[in-house]
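Morning, I've got a small favour to ask if you have a moment. I'm working through a protein record and want to make sense of it properly. The fold is given in discrete form, as structure tokens running alongside the sequence. Can you walk me through what the tokens say about the fold? Thanks so much in advance, here it is:
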Amino acid sequence: MPTLLIGCNEPKSRKKVFHDAIDSPLPELRGCDVLAFLPGPPPIRVGFQIKRVPDDFCSSLEDGRLQRELALMKGNVDIGVLIPEGRFRFNDCGRLKGRGKGSPPYRLTSVAVRNLLRSIQFQFGVVIEHSHSQEGTRQTVLEVIDYLSRSHVGLFRRPNFSGIWGSKVSEDELALWILQGFAGIGVGLARRIMARFGGIPLSFTCTAEELGEVEGISKTRARQMVEFLKERRSGSA
């Protein structure tokens, strides 16, 4: 189970939300409000810096706190997360609204806020996770911890093959799906291979040289594909 630490100087309302976190000076030393230790291997240190929007967020910019905290997180945690807590609201002139009614707007424009958040991600490598309330912040922290505690490979897998509109899979659709199992072969290239050979060349009626004539396939890739398929055929013989 991960261990949660919360800074000693955090407000009581936040400590109440993070009731299961341990009071510790360690988060502040690492630029965080909440620090999570995820057991390994390898163990992961995740730092969460929480900024109420707009007051705490803007004041921390003006006095330099946010810059110092981001720099500390960059060097002292494995993953840094900034959580703007609340909504960024803008007036008709595009300026960030103050917290209460009648409060003067801040100098920050909507574009400036978006660029600032981009800088935090690109320059400091800190992830941005938005929350609209203290309870939402706790939920966000728990979701990030749960995400980092699991393996996520969905974006690295080929989609399952299926027929158009959920119909029975055709031979061409199955061939396209099989060809995309080779590294670097997308839908367009798979279609060109099929057009060149009248289908998928699993019968080995083509050579590496002939396969390399297809636009988008290098000689090295063609040789690797043919050798792989020949190995599979000999292995199943």
Q: What stands out?
A: The first strand starts at residue 3 and ends at 7. The beta strands are 3-7, 22-24, 34-38, 44-52, 79-85, 127-128. Residues 79 and 115 are 21 Å apart (CA to CA). The chain has two domains: 3-154, 158-236.
